[in-house]
């Protein structure tokens, strides 16, 4: 019988390393935060000539309603990837700025005019 030069495998499972890569998530008990980020996207702060904006990308799976883009005036249909933007430096507070958020096409947001 021919012999193999490979070591035999043990049947016991190997302990997981503490490394985290893009395919695994940390087990620190933050399942609610992780689910929210997965469902609604990651919010980022963006500086522009007209102030600071919170911008969140909405995936095509998360887009369930029809919205009107303020950039082009066209409708954003359900299932279309788009952006949600609201002011970070609103004069009447965070609640008012969150209520005034708008849904934009990504190209319309990038090419918007800062002139009023």
TrEMBL record:
Residues 1-32 are annotated as: Disordered. Residues 1-15 have a biased composition (Low complexity). This is ATP/GTP-binding protein.
């Amino acid at each position: 019988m021919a012999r193999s030069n490979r070591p035999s495998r043990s049947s016991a499972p190997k302990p997981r390393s503490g490394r985290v890569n893009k395919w695994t998530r940390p087990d620190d008990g933050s399942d609610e935060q992780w689910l929210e980020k997965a469902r609604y996207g990651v919010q980022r702060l963006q500086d522009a000539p007209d102030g600071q904006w919170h911008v969140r990308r909405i995936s095509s799976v998360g887009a369930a309603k029809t919205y009107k883009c303020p950039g082009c005036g066209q409708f954003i249909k359900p299932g279309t990837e788009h952006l949600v933007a609201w002011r970070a430096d609103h004069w009447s507070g965070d609640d008012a700025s969150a209520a005034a958020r708008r849904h934009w096409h990504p190209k319309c947001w990038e090419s918007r005019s800062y002139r009023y």
